[in-house]
Amino acid sequence: MTDQRTDVPARGFARRSATIATLLLTMILVACASRPVGVLIPSGTSTGASEVNMLVATTRAPSGQPGVLFSGERAEQMSAAEITVSIPPDANREIGQVQWPKKMPPDPSREFSTVSVKPLNVPTDVRGWMKANLPKSRRILVFVHGFNNRYEDAVYRFAQIVHDSNTDVAPVMFTWPSRASIFDYNYDKESTNYSRDALEELLRRASEDPAIGEVTVMAHSMGSWLTIEALRQMAIRDGRVAPKITNVILASPDLDVDVFRKQWEALGKQKPKFTIFVSRDDRALTISRRISGNVERLGQIDPSQEPYRSALEKEGGITILDLTALKGGDKLNHGKFAESPEVVRLIGNRLIAGQAVTDSDIGLGERVGAVALGTAQTVGSAASIAVSTPILIFDPKTRENYGGQINRFNQSLGNTVSSTVGQ
Q: What pTM did the predictor assign?
């Protein structure tokens, strides 16, 4: 007869193992999507297409394959290139998605294609690129990609973000050595540590450039670890984060919450504004949590629950955008920040400029205004939306005003009912 007391942990372990195996299989299937090799071979553009010109700095080792440019191995020195990517006309694409070429050469009228690639000397050519590409805002956006990314993956994704957000910045990407394999998680994590000094150097040079006014850093997934570590190093060396680094955006951060708390403290008193995108249905972070001692990942927290709620209200300086209710564009729900048209436009319109974001900007407030114009059917849908808005925002100021928003919602709802009954 089986001892049920010892069988319970065994069953629990079996269930956890099955969950991890299922998620790994999903990641393998997602990663195995067929893509042609060599998409960074210049292939031109087409009428009506848009072009994104970016600076790409990397700690990757060069690749011997044409059109691949850089591998997942580590280089001794940081190198840079100017890359221009062609994006199809909006009528031929879905906002939030990268239209990968099905074969080479690509069809620029319907697919992303590479227009030009120009190696740059560090730091002289990099300064020249900055001077030539800074907009009137004098603002740059530095993007740091996440786990399991090839060089071209990061380039095309960043081009999509820049284009779809319509942001007024000079786009700069920092790409670190990822082997782009789900089985190389630990290698990728160590590669972020390997690249801390290089990213800190890039951010320091940008902050010291008199032509640049503001620097926003946006990081995804494991790139969040690299970003926070580079900023932490800077704060330890200089006593603070460079003042020009005004905004930090962490999307689905693959960060141990306990470690992040210590990193946050090390950033000093004068910190940049932080915006963190979280989603409790992020399946990639579920795997990360399982293989990292089952400690909560920052990108999966529920900011309305303790201990996070009290900590966030006490600390200030951090705005959490909960994307759980948003439908993801990938099976892992790990890239909502770039795939949702609403979110990517929010990044371009407000977050990069350091503007505050409240529920009235993108969530409850807009929908409350629409309720009064609706009918009985609208009442039902609006009520459900009020309970579960697609994007929930958590920051102290929003919470102070939340009661007023609910009151306005109830008033609008009452007006709608009255008008509907009168019909």
A: 0.83
